[in-house]
Amino acid sequence: MKKKPVNQKKHSGILSGSLWFFTLIILSAIFFMMCQKEDVNSDAPIKPGRYELSIKMDSVLRWYTIVIPTGYDHNQKRPLVLAFHPGDANMNDFYDALLGFLDSAEKENWLVVLPNGRNETDNRTGECLWNAVHCCGFPYVLNIDDVGFIRKLIDKLQKDYKIDKNRIYAMGRSNGGMLVHRLGAELWDVFAAIAPFNATTGGQFNPNYSPL
Known about the structure:
This protein has helices at 8-38, 91-97, 99-108, 137-141, 146-160, 175-186; strands at residues 49-57, 60-68, 78-84, 111-115, 163-173, 193-197. The protein has a 6-stranded mixed β-sheet, sandwiched between helices. Helices cover 38% and strands 22% of the residues. 30% of the residues are buried. By secondary structure, the protein is of the alpha/beta class.
């Protein structure tokens, strides 16, 4: 019985189609990886030190200080602690008040971020406040979305740094502690634990109240 000759033209056509299919998959994978890389902020500081940075929230610049420990390894996931200043201060004032805690964070290689509240001028200096639902001042009156700001900030930090998503914590004093109570309730899927101190939760807003 004679074997039928293989149709070379048809065979090469099938081969070409297969090659095109696999080429398309490879190109798609490369494009996907390029898009993923664009999500990472290569300009984010990774050397040890203290940096003041900002992001836009509702068309307004919001500031934060990040403290990168000496032993920080960009390839190893680390805990993240967010520290919220009281209402008569800002992130720089609170940094000075937390020097003992920052020493511990340095030893344990924690990333520490001190977000800044808002005021009626530059949102960076002077006395800044937080909207904790029942308090306080300017952010309360204008219903500033501080919860949205913190969620956006954490999303950015997770793109910029190696952060253990199971070890993200919040601490805060007075008005900052009030916000921490709120964050613990509204961002329960983000924070592993919270530590508010000298801070109330809930209640009615008192326009004559001045947070200490």
